[in-house]
Specification:
- This protein starts with a helix and ends in a 6-residue tail after the last helix.
- Helix content is 45%, strand content 6%.
- A two-stranded antiparallel ribbon has the order 1-5.
């Protein structure tokens, strides 16, 4: 009997302990950026799978699977929300986000999940993986990982931190995590300055350039895996955001010849394709796509761009594809630019509702496949490198002949009836920025351009809809706040 009572008492204590543990877990859930140790570096195949997993995390829903691009475009003034549903980017569109909003937390958490995955991978390679695959392949893999970390930090800066160009990066940036987070004790970290985060981004990209292969064996790999040109192209993007125009020119000159035809002279023969619409069509592996995120029937995005940008069935008469129609194109945005001719091939990437209650409404159809929405999503295109170089040359030299040639190369592959000219330095810069606005509509780049140029987020005044006021750079809503999911655990903030 005494033994029975002892057993009952023991079981009761065990239940109480389990209940206390459960309550502790509910009050202190493990952050999404933490991952456990695993035997992932014991064989070459497992290590290769780890690299593939990093790309898969980068193209997760919260980041390059759609939401980063989706929210940037919702902010930037060219898209109108069909409704103001906060679960579909409505508050990002209205520029009224707060630290508890899912938009704010989903991008942050996905970005830091990539960063922590890279840190875990590098630590695993240092401890074990390099001995398994050899020094050369190890550097290749780590170069890919560090490039993804660099891009993740770069994109997070575009939403959560003061632009570098405002104060040369002196403002608070992001917690700069370079070691694995394996427990809550690793989580506390203050924000580094914007300048320090950019320094790390460039260190990562320099390493990637030095250690990535010049090219792969197939067009698919050259499009979906990082190579030397990818790192160089990424550096042109980063230096442009910093306003460091001489460095943009140095990097771009590595992959852009002095004169036409503009084809990368080494590694992958990156170049503009003749028809811009082909960039957004299967097989998605054109030489213009320096890096794109691939999807397939067995590897589908979550909240996809096609799902967000394409009209629903009722509005899609004549289109043959349907999405949810969350965001249509603002009739007073860049689509109204009088210099963007109706015969420009880029107009073919816009669909106009032909009839019904929404007749005349315009939709972005760069991601046209419809359900299950498996279009590749470009990260960096050669067109962006050309226009970044053109802008840097104009800033350094004024009305620069090469800058005009690069600008016209992009314009004339879609509109061969127009030759752009400029009478002043500022006029040329304005034309290049405008060309970026047209060329990359819907690709998540316009928000970064507004930030680096210290421009306001423009007002949105749709016909028959609620107006959204302009947000100036000194408005608190110009930047996203650090989410509650970070401040809850990171006592360093």
């Amino acid at each position: 009997m005494k033994c029975k009572n002892i057993i009952i008492l023991f079981l009761g204590m065990l239940l109480l302990f389990n209940s206390a543990c459960k309550k502790e877990a509910e009050l202190n859930p493990i952050p999404t950026t933490l991952i456990s140790d695993a035997s992932a570096f014991e064989t070459a195949d497992r290590i290769s799978n780890q690299v593939n997993g990093l790309y898969a995390t980068f193209k997760g829903t919260g980041f390059w699977g759609s939401l980063y691009i989706y929210y940037c475009e919702a902010r930037a003034g060219d898209f109108i929300a069909t409704n103001l549903n906060p679960t579909r980017g409505g508050l990002s569109y209205q520029m009224t986000v707060d630290p508890g909003l899912t938009d704010v937390s989903s991008v942050w958490e996905q970005g830091y999940q990539i960063i922590n995955g890279v840190n875990v991978f590098i630590a695993g390679m240092d401890a074990k993986g390099t001995d398994v695959v050899g020094a050369d392949l190890s550097k290749n893999y780590i170069g890919e990982a560090r490039l993804l970390r660099a891009l993740s930090y770069y994109y997070l800066l575009q939403l959560y931190a003061t632009p570098y160009t405002k104060d040369n990066g002196a403002s608070p940036g992001l917690p700069l995590r370079l070691k694995p987070n394996k427990g809550l004790a690793d989580y506390n970290l203050a924000r580094s300055s914007v300048a320090d985060v950019y320094k790390q981004i460039l260190d990562d990209l320099d390493f990637a350039e030095a250690n990535l292969p010049a090219q792969y064996s197939t067009a698919a790999l050259n499009t979906t895996r990082a190579h030397k040109n990818t790192a160089i192209a990424a550096k042109t993007k980063v230096y442009l955001s910093m306003g460091k125009y001489p460095q943009v020119i140095i990097e771009a000159n590595k992959i852009v010849p002095a004169s036409a035809p503009f084809v990368a002279p080494t590694g992958v023969k990156n170049a503009l394709v003749a028809d811009v619409t082909s960039v957004f069509k299967a097989p998605f592996t054109s030489v213009e796509s320096i890096l794109s995120m691939p999807f397939s029937n067995t590897d589908r995005p979550g909240t996809s761009l096609g799902n967000a940008y394409l009209p629903d069935g009722a509005n899609a008469t004549g289109l043959g594809k349907s999405g949810t129609g969350d965001f249509y194109l603002f009739e007073g945005g860049i689509v109204a630019d009088p210099g963007w001719k109706a015969t420009d091939k880029r107009r073919l990437l816009i669909f106009k509702t032909p009839s019904g209650a929404n007749a005349g409404r315009l939709w972005c159809t760069k991601y046209l496949s419809g359900s299950p929405f498996i279009d590749y999503i470009p990260v960096i295109r050669y067109a962006e490198v050309l226009l970044s170089l053109a802008e840097a040359l104009a800033n350094e030299n004024g009305v620069d002949a090469r800058a005009l040639a690069l600008l016209n190369a992009v314009r004339q592959r879609s509109d061969n009836t127009t030759t752009l000219t400029a009478s002043s330095k500022q006029a040329l810069i304005d034309m290049i920025v405008n060309e970026r606005h047209i060329e990359f509509l819907g690709e998540g780049i316009r928000n970064s351009d507004l930030m680096r140029l210290k421009l306001p987020v423009p007002a949105k005044t749709p016909s028959g809809g609620s107006p959204i006021p302009q947000i100036n750079p000194d408005n608190p809503n110009y930047l996203w706040p650090i989410p509650n999911s970070e401040t809850l655990y990171n006592k360093g903030l």
